[in-house]
Amino acid sequence: MQNRRGFTLVELAVVVVILGVLAAFAVPRFLASVERSKAAEAFNYLSSVQAAQERYHARQGTYATEVTELDIKFTAPKYFTVGAVAAGSTGSLEDSWSLTLTRTGASAGYGEYTVTFTEEGYDGENSTIADHADINPMQI
Question: Is the pTM here over 0.90, yes or no?
Answer without folding.
Answer: no
